[in-house]
């Protein structure tokens, strides 16, 4: 018996990215002094995502 691929798998990354964007946006609106730190954190995350091909 073959195992069926999970159809929601590709959407999981999109939903996770959108939720992360919303959380970062809320933090940036609530605490504007953290915007430089959030920028560095986002840049580091994107570098890791590219290196690890997440």
From TrEMBL:
Domain of life per record: Bacteria
Assigned keywords, A-Z: Membrane, Transmembrane, Transmembrane helix
Transmembrane segments: 12-29, 35-52
Protein name per the record: SpdD protein
